[in-house]
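Retro notes, structure queue

What went well: the backlog is down to a handful. What didn't: a couple of records were mislabeled last round, so from now on we paste the full input next to the output in the thread. Example, using Aminotransferase class I/classII large domain-containing protein from Solanum bulbocastanum:
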Amino acid sequence: MEGNLGGGVNNQIEIETPNNITIKGILGLLMANTEATDIKKVISLGMGDPTSYSCFHSPDVAHDAVIESLASHKFNGYSPTVGLPQTRKAIADYLSRELPEKLCSDDVYITAGCTQAIELALSILARPGANILLPRPGFPIYALCAAFRNIEVRYFDLIPGKGWEVDLNAVEALADHNTIGIVVINPGNPCGNVYSYPHLQKIAETAKKLRTIVIADEVYGHLAFGANPFVPMGIFGDIAPVLTLGSLSKRWLVPGWRLGWLVTNDPNGTLKNPKFVERIKKYCDICGGPATFIQAAVPRIIQQTEDVFFRKTINLLKWTAEICCEKIKEIPCISCPYKPEGSMAVMVKLHLPLMVDISDDIDFCFKLAKEESVILLPGLAVGLKNWIRITFAADPVSLEEALGRLKSFCQRHSYQQNDHH
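Corresponding output:
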């Protein structure tokens, strides 16, 4: 028995080793490396949690809805594991506003945040020999979930010079009869891209050709402030089946409430196969969803949040993205190939040959944390070595301060600067 257990543990380590960098894990290590002083407080632009900054706060109606739900004493028990009926209906109605085919409540499964929706999607699709196509750069939780489910990960590149579009030729070359899905994150994390209608349509047509489905991660849905409006992938559900993953976290600025969803956009009925539906329901029985009283607040939150709240968030993100790009232009040794048009983050390229005593992106971020008390995410954490991810969902004053410190750091560590001494 001990021998088997040892073998099992070794195998697990072997499978997981490439995937065990998590964003939270590496940010924790970076935070431990900072030295806050009275003069220099720690500024983190590493995590996509805008609630750390007082300029981003959730709408009053959301708080009122949760308080009302809790005070009613009606929602202290278990909810159905697939979610409360009124919550499923509210989300189906909300997403249907932009879809050609109306969703029904049964298409919606309520999850504990979008992370659990990812776990649910991969778990129900997993089968022996399966592989999944993931974007690089992307969100590392997909690879981590895949490792736990023994799903092989195959990466396709996003192209920085083309607005981080999907390399569709690479997708076709990577796929085979064991491909269970293509993951598309739009608006993009970590790149800040927003895909055009024609590009999303091409992705759906590629999935149809490859006889697979699209897993559409829309956790940043509607957070678009550039030339391209946000287009939900579910619009193309009649071309290829789409599993849409989303949450209240980013648009309503409540990531800690853990209210997400998995939705089947599938007018042709492939994902409505009774066996598949039963599989989803059984998996929901295992994992349990978010707190019942939070679920009960969702219909009021969705119906009563005013457009002015969303516009304010969008305007603030547009402003902070602008600050970020303008400041980066002044900083030696780094460049931004694509100005973000959505979500809350941007990828910035490190030019290591121009830098003294910096070996890679991890080294860069650790030294920056130690010397300047600024936390940025090394690109390796999202699959792109020698890049860094900067989250611009911060108050403008803190953002400018952090980027000023980043500039000082880059000047100190650039060959050009060191040549002058």
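Agreed that this is the format going forward. Reviewer comment attached to the example: The CA atoms of residues 178 and 361 lie 34 Å apart.
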